[in-house]
Write a structure and sequence with these properties.
The protein is an alpha+beta fold. About 30% of the residues lie in helices and about 25% in strands. The protein binds glycyl-adenosine-5'-phosphate.
């Protein structure tokens, strides 16, 4: 027998392998339909020979560790597989102390740990990774509209940092893919070079209903209902009676490592006609180095003008990214270095700057240079980074 997973993508290839090894005498069966007693006769999915299939085993996808020096079973702890539960745990704390009103969201970034069976593809699937999650709490009647809002908003955000185009899709889950408590889930997916022609998940946007708050309420014994003073019947004095409810939650949950990997894959460009054929076409909004300032030569008053410009740009844009200054090596090498690092604009101080207060702007993607006034550099950059 040759067993495969339902709809396994490599079914045809594996079947051929099995036919070669067993003289064409093979029958394809679904793995789920094979009784354990027959396992010895089965060529398992991705296996090289018959008889390697083991009985089903429990996989624990959570990382465990021990807290405390004695390391007994009582000291066992599990590392979080998502950052979300910390937010649910703090829901009441935030409502009681920060005077927020529903709808509101609590955002969170941090490490997550999963005992992935097949970590691979650079940082795409790893056992320790960074997540950015938002738990957005709203009234149950408005939850579907908020779900649609976040789904579209998050897709637009990925486009706004440079992943627009046919490599990016928003995929709504089919009913049978949804968790039992979810009223809807969509994934933002990117076509990575190693998933092509398929796509890999970047972010999930899930309508989690009030499942999590219900569970925390049940197991902690703490009341997590929200009292909404702006709802309920209108009273004779013009105020509302109020309504008590467990908010529903919309959760956009993104993988930051996957996001960075997608941006690098999208930005990596080869152009053999350029002196340095590789460059990183990052959107100016996301480029870690926002601009570079070069004195054409390291003398004749140019370094001083460059330093002034550098200080001005650093004061204005230093919080959104790096501003570099480089006076060493040929100007071509300096441009090439910035191209590879994804820096979108280089400003060069040359002889003309000293006479007419203009500089050259070099565009990373086209290599084109133009002249602008020295005092137009900051407004130019502001417009490009917006
Ligand atoms: N709280 C919901 C949640 O954790 P998830 O879809 O399991 O949802 C969110 O994870 C995102 O985290 C995924 O869309 C993906 O980008 C990223 N992610 C999940 N597992 C990962 C792994 N093993 N390595 C890197 N990123 C991962």
């Amino acid at each position: 027998f040759f067993a495969c997973r339902k709809g396994a993508p490599r079914e045809a290839k594996q079947r051929k392998k099995a036919e070669k090894a067993y003289g064409g005498d093979v029958t394809t069966i679904m793995l789920t339909s094979v009784p354990v007693a027959q396992f010895a006769k089965v060529l398992a999915p991705d296996a090289e020979k018959v008889g390697t299939l083991t009985e089903p085993r429990q996989f624990n996808l959570m990382f465990s560790t021990y807290i405390g020096a004695t390391a007994t079973e009582d000291d066992k702890a599990y590392m979080r597989p998502e950052t979300a539960q910390g937010v649910f745990l703090h829901f009441k704390n935030v409502v009681d102390t920060s005077r927020v009103k529903v709808p509101f969201g609590i955002g969170n970034t941090g490490r997550s740990f999963r005992n992935e069976v097949t970590p691979r593809n650079f940082t795409f699937r790893s056992r320790e990774f960074e997540q950015a999650e938002l738990e957005f709490f709203c009234h149950p009647d408005e939850s579907l509209a908020w779900y649609q809002f976040w789904r579209d908003f998050r897709m637009d955000w990925w486009k706004a940092i440079g992943l627009a185009g046919e490599n990016l899709i928003l995929r709504e889950h089919d009913k049978d893919e949804l968790s039992h408590y979810s009223q809807g889930t969509s994934d933002v997916e990117y076509r990575f070079p190693f998933t092509a022609p398929g796509f890999g998940e970047l972010e999930g946007i899930a309508h989690r209903g009030n499942y999590d708050l219900t569970q925390h309420q049940k197991h902690s014994g703490a009341k997590l209902e929200y009292f909404d003073q702006e709802r309920g019947d209108l009273l004779p004095n013009g105020s509302r009676r109020g309504e008590r409810y467990l908010p529903h939650c919309i959760e956009p949950a993104a993988g930051l490592d996957r996001g960075a990997l997608a941006l690098i894959c999208e930005g990596y460009t080869r152009d053999e006609s350029r002196p340095s054929p590789e460059f990183l076409k990052l959107h100016p909004r996301i480029a870690p180095i926002k601009a570079a300032v070069f004195p054409l030569v390291n003398k004749d008053g140019m370094p001083e003008v460059a330093e002034n410009l550098y200080n001005d740009l650093f004061a204005k844009f230093g919080r959104s990214g790096f501003i570099e200054m480089d006076a060493k090596q040929s100007i071509g090498k300096r441009y090439a270095r910035m191209d590879e690092a994804g820096c979108p604009f280089c400003f060069t101080i040359d002889g003309e700057t000293l006479t007419n207060q203009t500089v050259t702007v070099r565009d990373r993607d086209s290599g084109a240079q133009s002249r602008i006034a020295l005092d137009a550099v900051a407004p130019f950059l502001l417009e490009k980074l917006a």
